[in-house]
Structure prediction request, 492 residues.
Amino acid sequence: MAGLTIVSLLLLLAVPSTLAAPQDALITRLPGFDGTFPSKHYAGYITVDEDRGRNLFYYFVESETNPETDPVVLWLNGGPGCSSFDGFIYEHGPFNFESGGKPGSLPQLHLNPYSWSKVSNMIYLDSPAGVGLSYSNNISDYKTGDLKTASDSHTFLLKWFEQYPEFLTNPFYISGESYAGVYVPTLAHEVVKGIQGGAKPTLNFKGYMVGNGVTDTVFDGDALVPFAHGMGLISNDLFQEVNTACQGSYWNPVNDSCLKTLNKVDWELDNLNIYDILEPCYHSPEVREVVSDNSNNSRLPSSFRRLGETDRPLPVRKRMFGRSWPLRAPVRDGRVPTWPELGSSGVPCMNDEVATSWLNNEAVRSAIHAQPENLVDWELCTSRIDFEHDAGSMIKYHKNLTAQGYRALIFSGDHDMCIPFTGTEAWTRSLGYEVNDAWRPWYFNEQVAGYTQGYDHGLIFLTIKGAGHTVPEYKPQEALAFYSRWLAGAKL
Prediction:
């Protein structure tokens, strides 16, 4: 007991005497995996609105190290409309997924040596209702937005910790990427408000983490053109032309001349993979033909074939199709289009065959306690929801949370053109905090892995060299390194 803080001791005394996760949520097997789980896995639904039948699905992985004391970390993917199984399957979940070889065939699962469950307990949440495996009995609930999503996710957390009270004393963090740059701070705000208002159970919330996150229309929207110029994707002449025409403001064209030059930029970036400018974005109806490792089938010169490769033991996602995200802000009248609605102008350069075939398999659904496929179909990113961005800029949320002492790690893959690191660096600097760790490289395996700058109030900005929009997918080893160091409070 001597090592417990007063807060931890009080939380411990508040926990019911019977400490046990719900056994009906325990996962005992997974189709495609023949080994032994390195830790306990649980999954199921939490009902966040009994009257309307609104249910959020989660998959919980206990830490492989010390689940009794290791942090509990909630993971959220963005979209809006994308399932957090994206993170589970393609980024930092406990398994690497090997394609079964034919469309619709069941993939094979292998243990992931760079899973974030190596050092933390992980909750993967499909949110809001209508996304992934989460659903509502009232389809009007699929018209939603930032604030309702944060409120529902907070209700989920309170009910989840009621079912898993043994984790109440563990440090709790919220994390996510992309549009979760909105989900994370708005949910953190709800959690803090709940703690201060006496919501029970009391969460041991310590901070949050956002990767390549949507934050602010101006900072995010104005970052793309200078990023493209700095990366050598548009000429200096075109950059000077568009900068003059748009007066340095690119997210919202101020005149016809600005719009015309932005269209030129858009055309020059047209066939790039906006999520990682180093990776190809193919335009063939047959993904297997163009991504084959056989040099006879590759359209790329040999010197380019390994660009963007990681040390992940198995390939998990093949890049294909799509065009870069439009340069103009996609939000119209507060409403955010979901990924499938963007059609040919916004389809990600990816093939999600592995995830789709696994999560729409009847045996898998049964094993993870999910609704059958004929009731809830799984898509990586759905158009089922009608989503409104009603929380505004996230800068005020970040300022409020960090000013209260909650730790924040804001990280960026430096080759992502969807949410360029330059915009993220600019808004973190705009908070006005004193720099206490000046810009410097951080290292992994004695190599520069990126750059970081630390500020007062526990705010850290970090880049990951050579990574794209979904950092742990591109750089799994480096991602586990900065993640585990940050959770431990060690210097990055």
Summary: The chain has two domains: 6-217+390-488, 218-362. The domain at 6-217+390-488 is CATH 3.40.50.1820 (Rossmann fold). The radius of gyration is 22 Å. The chain has 15 helices and 17 strands.
